[in-house]
């Protein structure tokens, strides 16, 4: 049974930067457009997710079935808690460390189940610069093999209860926003896969919602996986709903 560290070509004591570098190297090598295969590409991605989620056992460790079900990686703990190690994906995605891990089975104030969400993000400016199509079913796979900067493409874990914008900022990212209350489209994202809970009244029209747009300042991830394209505020239909960001910055400073 291969360890996820073996798949990434890492030692078990690799630091955050080494894990990130190894992932970007291996995902490019495994990409089908670069001579790899879809199976190898997926295995590299899964290995990376296991390492950043804190489930990865050292390469020499023997899994103990008495501790619970053993998966294909020899791990036996939920994605967010294996002795508290590497519970946050912040360092892997290029952000700063956030708070420690919390279990994926929490319950919200309304009694609804909450889960830690694996967020895969992509900057729309990069999509436009490369001439990629937003509706390309392989868009994120293409981005993964394109050697993009951390702020333009990557992964992080959003904790239960966090809005998408809060989760991004807690990991060191500076995504667009203005009002933080659903009254503008500055923080809009296009949801490619997964769901954001956007029950709060907001400025988006029904048409924009039907096209998959959500507001990251009020939207909370409610699925285990989420793919979003951020920085879409200039797209048709959203551009007219933007507000000057400095208006709110001045208001906060005056207060």
Describe this structure in a few short sentences:
The chain is 28% helix and 13% strand. With 255 residues, the chain is α+β, with helices and mostly antiparallel strands.
Work out the count of structural domains: 2
Radius of gyration: 19 Å
State the helicity in percent bands. 25-40%
CATH architecture tag of the largest domain:
Roll
Strand content: 5-15%
Distance between the termini: 58 Å
Residue runs with pLDDT of under 50 for 5 or more positions: 76-113, 247-255
What structural category characterises the helix and strand content? alpha+beta
Characterize the quaternary organization of these chains: single chain
Number of helical regions: 8
Largest sheet data: 5 strands, mixed
Description:
The chain has helices at residues 4-8, 16-30, 38-53, 124-130, 139-144, 164-170, 206-210, 245-254, and strands at residues 117-123, 153-158, 188-193, 196-197, 213-215, 220-221, 225-230. With 255 residues, the protein is α+β, with helices and mostly antiparallel strands. It has two domains: 1-87, Orthogonal Bundle (Helix Hairpins); 109-255, Beta-grasp domain (Ubiquitin-like (UB roll), Roll), CATH 3.10.20. Strands 2-1-7-3-5 form a five-stranded mixed sheet. The longest helix has 16 residues, at 38-53. Mean pLDDT is 77; it is low at 76-113 and 247-255.
């Amino acid at each position: 049974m291969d360890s996820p560290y073996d798949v990434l070509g890492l030692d078990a004591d690799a630091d955050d930067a080494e894990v990130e570098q190894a992932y970007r190297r291996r995902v490019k090598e495994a990409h089908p457009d670069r001579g790899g295969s879809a199976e190898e590409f997926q295995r590299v991605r899964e290995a990376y997710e296991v390492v950043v989620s804190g489930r990865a056992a050292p390469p020499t460790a023997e899994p103990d079935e008495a501790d619970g079900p053993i998966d294909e990686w020899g791990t036996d703990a939920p994605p967010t808690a294996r002795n508290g190690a590497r519970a946050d994906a912040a360092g892997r995605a290029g952000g700063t460390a956030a708070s420690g891990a919390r279990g994926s089975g929490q319950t919200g104030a309304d009694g609804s189940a909450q889960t830690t969400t694996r967020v895969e993000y992509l900057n729309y400016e990069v999509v436009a610069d490369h001439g990629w199509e937003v509706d390309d079913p392989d868009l994120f796979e293409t981005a993964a093999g394109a050697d993009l900067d951390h702020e333009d493409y990557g992964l992080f874990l959003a904790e239960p209860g966090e809005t998408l914008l809060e989760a991004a900022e807690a990991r060191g990212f500076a995504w667009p926003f203005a009002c933080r209350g659903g009254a503008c489209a500055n923080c809009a994202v296009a949801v490619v896969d997964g769901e954001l809970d956007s029950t709060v009244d907001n400025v988006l029209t029904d048409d924009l919602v039907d096209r998959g747009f959500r507001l990251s300042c009020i939207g909370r991830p409610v699925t285990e996986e989420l793919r979003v394209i951020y920085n879409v505020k200039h797209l048709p239909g959203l551009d007219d709903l933007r507000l000057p960001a400095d208006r709110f910055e001045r208001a906060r400073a005056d207060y």
